[in-house]
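Q: Got a minute? One more chain.
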Amino acid sequence: MTQIAQALETVKPTAQDVLGDSVTFSPIRWKTGWPHHLRRVPPFRDDATASITRSEVFAFAADVAESGYARDQIIDFLGACFAYMAGQSNQVMQLQAFLRNKGKASQLLGAVRRLEGASPIDAYGSLTATGLPPKFASAIAYFLAGEQEGGSGAELKPVIICSNRARVAGLAKDADWTADEYGEYLEALAAARDAYDAELPLDAVEWALREFARRSE
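A: Always. Here it is, folded:
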């Protein structure tokens, strides 16, 4: 049994588990540290702590699509996506430093605008080309691709990658994955999903990997 299969058997993920997954973060930390040069601050409240779910981040992503990838909606989405992904970790400072770099921030906004219709591998490749770490690049691609559906023949969509997920998936590297290696990750998850329950959305497998790694710590 592969570790992916073991994770699925142990965690028994559902689509509802994925959408309801909640992360605690500090809105005021993001609000006060948001770069002025972006000329728009996402709608963070002044609270010291709050929670955000994947479903809520998907809603921000849907606003991006509905707006035709308008700049303001992209910035609001990035705030929600990064808040969910970084939680209360030191990665908040890492992401704020990335966004404070005007060149990198401009590259990222441009890359996001070009994502519509891109394949998961191409989307990941263009986002990591901006210098954004793979974990966050894959998250942007994942959320902007919309909520996922299962079923045989379902379109392969992006999912989040990180060192813990990659380790459980059996990837040779635990960081700095190329676009091709990211494609191998997606294929490994899809194969395990099809063997376990083809009706599951692919992100349920990704979520199971994260949960399995967390429980194994």
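A: Residues 3-216 form one domain.
Q: Perfect, thanks.
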